[in-house]
Design goal:
about 400 residues; 7-stranded mixed sheet; 24 strands; about 30% strand; binds S-adenosylmethionine
């Protein structure tokens, strides 16, 4: 039986009219294949569409690290912008959409890989699509070359700390000073293993090695550049996925706010936006993780010539900044996790804040939160989609909302 793919899911997989999931297929394509539990795992594409291209990566057929290498760049760009426009339309909103900014191949600077011991050594890579099988990625087109160069270190770590039953988590982050490797679900490191790991970190020139939450070696502080400041995030901490993505989002946020003197940066992380904004504004950075704020504060103290940055550790889901607190700021930056910022946005709506720069990795919660603000008199001035999750279904965006006399 031939089925026609109608649309893509938010994971970038094809969906037919009757809801069958068809990975590796594009809208308009006719496909055949065995349907198991609503999914054709190995579809045969009967009639390809012109947007289909040859995947650049040899691992793409199996590897779950990417979902959309079979689609042209133009198709993916248009689809990601459309995902955001549709989410907004679902809330009765529309906005001028700026041209998408896509990160180049081989620029992902942070990745979470899986590792498992084998009879012969170790298997390290991404999971296969919709599976827990690990696919090795020696020719990956997504990761930055510095992360690729750390794959042998990950294999050795897996031989030392992994098992044939369980799976290691390997978070690789590229820093100014080398790769920062955070290992989780590993065997406890004691005695000779600690010595072996120290030797491994030196031999592979890792900047830092963290093991089940304990930092075993900091050979060089793994710094990230945020504006003119250098920050050393805690192991495994959130960081925008590519340098180009961080730059595009920072430009968008800066452009959204203009030259305002006092800014609140909510869900501030380690200071991705707070520190560049401190070139021209006093910034109050609020975030749930005290460790991330400590890193931000240390980075600010070491940088020369920035305006004042204050920090506050606070759960913004339970204790959002209230209108009385918000009224002291000329603008707010808000960059919540996937769930969005329902409680905080309700307080911004009730406050006199005139400009909000929203950054989001979830178009659905973004549209819901944007609606609350528009109902309180904000205009959605523009949306900038930033594709730092190249070849995946993920969408990142920045947007400007404003009200009152400020254009
Ligand atoms: C998408 S990240 C953005 C971080 C930062 N703006 C950046 O660009 O690097 C979301 C941040 O929200 C923080 N977070 C998650 N839940 C929170 C909560 N309930 N209250 C405050 N911060 C929270 C996370 O620790 C994380 O740093």
């Amino acid at each position: 039986m031939t089925l026609t793919v109608e649309r893509l899911s938010l994971r970038g997989e094809g969906i037919t009219a009757d809801g069958v999931t068809v990975p590796l297929a594009l809208p308009g394509e006719e496909v055949t294949g065995e349907i198991v539990e609503g999914r054709i795992t190995a579809p045969r594409i009967v009639t390809p569409v012109p947007d289909r291209v040859r995947a650049p990566c040899p691992h793409f057929a199996r590897c779950g690290g990417c979902a959309l290498q079979h689609a042209s760049d133009d198709f993916v760009a248009a689809w990601k912008v459309q995902v955001v426009a549709r989410a907004l339309a679902g809330q009765g909103l529309e906005a001028p959409m700026r041209p998408i900014l896509t990160s180049p191949p081989a620029s992902r600077r942070r990745a979470v890989l899986a590792g498992r011991r084998t009879k012969k050594g170790a298997l390290v890579g991404f999971h296969a699509r919709a599976s827990d099988v690990i696919v090795p990625i020696p020719d990956c087109r997504l990761l930055h070359p510095d992360l690729m160069a750390a794959l042998p270190a990950c294999e050795e770590v897996t031989v030392l700390g992994g098992s044939r039953k369980g799976e290691l988590g390997l978070t690789l982050t590229r820093s100014v000073d080398g790769v920062d490797l955070t290992v989780t679900q590993a065997k406890p490191a004691d005695g000779p293993m600690l010595a072996d790991l120290a030797v491994l970190a030196a031999r592979h020139d890792l900047a830092r090695l963290t093991w089940n939450g304990d930092t075993l070696a900091t050979r060089r502080p793994p710094r990230q550049t945020m504006g003119r400041a250098h920050v050393m995030p805690p192991p495994g901490a959130f960081l925008q996925a590519t340098e180009a993505g961080q730059a595009a989002l920072t430009d968008a946020v800066r452009g959204a706010l203009g030259d305002v003197p006092r800014v609140a940066d909510l869900f501030a992380g380690c200071g991705t936006f707070a520190l560049p904004l401190a070139e021209t504004a006093q910034v109050h950075a609020v975030e749930g993780s005290a460790a991330m704020l400590a890193a931000l504060d240390a980075g600010w103290r070491q940088a020369q010539g920035l305006k004042r940055v204050t920090t506050e550790a606070r759960d913004l889901f339970r204790r959002p900044l209230m209108p009385d607190e918000l009224k002291t700021f000329d603008a707010v930056v808000i960059d919540p996790p996937r769930a969005g910022a329902e409680a905080q946005v309700a307080q911004i709506a009730a406050s006199p804040v005139p400009v909000v720069a929203m950054v989001s990795c979830n178009p659905v919660s973004f549209a819901r939160d944007a609606r609350v603000l528009t109902q309180a008199g904000f205009r959605l001035d523009w949306v900038q989609v930033v594709d730092q999750f190249r070849w995946s279904g993920h969408v990142e965006l920045a947007a400007r909302l404003s009200r009152g006399h400020i254009a």
